[in-house]
Amino acid sequence: MRMILLGPPGAGKGTQAVRLVERLGIPQLSTGDMLRAAVTAGTPVGVKAKELMDRGDLVPDDVVVGIIADRIELPDAKSGFILDGFPRTVAQAESFDAMLAEKGLKLDAVIEFKVNEAELVDRIVKRAKETEARGEPVRKDDNPDVFKTRLEAYRKQTAPLSVYYSEKGQLKTVDGMKPIDEVTEAIKGILGR
After folding, report:
1. Distance between CA 141 and CA 148 in Å, rounded?
2. Catalytic residue among 139, 148, 155, 168
3. Catalytic site residue 88?
4. What are the residue boundaries of the structural domains of the chain, listed by start?
5. Which of 19, 36, 114, 150 is flagged as catalytic?
6. Active-site annotation holds for 150
7. Which residue has the higher pLDDT, 24 or 144?
8. Could you read off the pLDDT of 98-131 as tens digits, one per residue?
């Protein structure tokens, strides 16, 4: 099962990804973690990425897709993977689709978490207060102003992926504002397991 989870920050993708990892036994792939691992391992793509990062440049899409291409060859990803946070743009999605096609693979599911943005901001404020009340450090991205900036970036860069995957007939949606267990059940319904 190869899948992408789409939706704005705070929509519940990470929470559901953890449940999918446990239920399906496939890894959740983080492009940030993969980049750091490739750099540490000194893979050819990692060496290229390190040169770019050392100069302060952004890692281009082809390098990120190359790192994903290497990662999905590892044994734990042979039966599938979950991507959350990638692709971020239509250009990345097109490169990713081309790479999968070269490998004779395809996506099984693209699930978008639909949310009410005003309620989402309230959810993040509540999460920050609960974290603080437990005496734990609050994530920088749980600051309401930072969160609103991330939400705007999502709207501009990532939201067009909904149209891209919808036009390909791959997009399924869940109501990300429902309780966690109900979202889990909706995803089970989409996946058929």
Report:
1. 9
2. 139
3. yes
4. 2-26+79-191
5. 150
6. yes
7. 24
8. 999 999 999 999 999 999 988 888 888 888 889 8
- Quote the CA–CA distance of 111 and 17 in Å, as a whole number: 11
SS (H, E, C) 64-97: HHHHHHHHCCCHHHCCCEEEECCCCCHHHHHHHH
- Of the residues 13, 48, 71, 123, only one is catalytic, namely 13
Strand ranges (E), the chain: 2-6, 28-29, 81-84, 109-114, 171-175
Amino acid residing at 47:
V
Tens digit of pLDDT for each residue in 3-55? 999 998 888 998 999 999 999 999 999 887 888 888 898 988 888 888 887 88
Is 193 noted as a catalytic residue in this protein?
A: no
Q: How many residues does the chain have?
A: 193
CATH topology for 2-26+79-191?
Rossmann fold (3.40.50)
Q: Are 5 and 83 in contact (CB under 8 A)?
A: yes
C-alpha–C-alpha distance, residues 163 and 129, integer Å: 35
Active-site annotation holder among 88, 114, 172, 178: 88
Three-state SS for 132?
helix
H or E segment to which residue 150 belongs:
helix 144-153
